[in-house]
Amino acid sequence: MSRDRAPSHATEPILQAGAPARASRGALVVVHGRGATAQGAINLFEPLSRHGLAVFSPQAFRGRWYPSTPGTELEPDDPWLTASVDRVETCLERAASVGVGAERTVLVGFSQGARVVAEFLCQFPRRYGGAGILAGTVPGTSGESDGPPDRHSRSRSRPRSRPPDDTLEGTPILLAFGDDDPSVSPAAARASATIFEEVGGDVEVMATPDTGHAVSDEAFAWLERRIETVLESATR
């Protein structure tokens, strides 16, 4: 599949599960990884289900959000990445249509899906209910070395025209990865954390020992606490 070919994520469905529209007090957006499906993401994150929580899960065209080329890093203005980010934005619009605002919506992505969610947070900073970047990083930070954030990371600008004072307003963000995961380096995780903090995120970096490319029990526990806090805030 060529990068020159227009991406077609918008023709793919967005699945909805969980609470019905009139009973929704919070929302969870789950973005699957490469080779997976929207239904698979709903199944993976089923332990996060709670009464009053609506779940939205977009499907990528042919099961991947963007083609991966070894040795080539994604640029923020990559048309595939832009089209992927648009699907996350559509999920937020679906949540708003059932009465759930961004401040009560938690965004979670795994692997390629994590990078899509990370890019969405950079392009559309505002207060969200929370975010889980699981086994992924901000595109443009996948450095090979375990050193400080490189120049590309620190100088990374927002690819879309956003007001300069827009921030994540303290949105809690979990950046979780296994220390045996070959696709996420500690350097890239630190660089991603720095980017989120510069945009006003409240970031927790979680490296789980003896864990590969997977979602750890500790990450699930963090997300469960965040979702419960969001749902409780809707009843006050």
How many beta strands in the DSSP annotation? 7
> For the largest beta sheet, what order do the strands appear in spatially?
1-3-2-4-5-6-7
Number of helices: 6
Specify the overall morphology: globular
SSE-based structural type: alpha/beta
Percent in helix: 25-40%
What oligomerization state is this entry in?
single chain
First and last CA, distance: 50 Å
Largest sheet: 7 strands, mixed
Mean pLDDT level = 88
How much β-strand is present in the residues? 15-25%
Using only CA atoms, what is the Rg?
16 Å
Taken in chain order, the helices and strands follow as: EEHEHEHEHEHEH
Unreliable stretches: 144-159
InterPro entries: AB_hydrolase_fold, LYPA1-2/EST-like, PLipase/COase/thioEstase
Family: Belongs to the AB hydrolase superfamily. AB hydrolase 2 family.
Protein name: Phospholipase
GO molecular function, one term: hydrolase activity
Describe the structure.
By secondary structure, this protein is α/β, with parallel strands linked by helices. The chain has 6 helices and 7 strands; from the N terminus they run E-E-H-E-H-E-H-E-H-E-H-E-H. It has helices at residues 38-44, 79-97, 112-123, 151-154, 186-198, 217-233; strands at residues 14-18, 26-31, 53-58, 105-110, 130-134, 172-178, 202-208. Strands 1-3-2-4-5-6-7 form a 7-stranded mixed sheet, sandwiched between helices. Helix 2 crosses helix 3. The longest helix has 19 residues, at 79-97. It is globular, with a radius of gyration of 16 Å. The N and C termini lie far apart (50 Å).
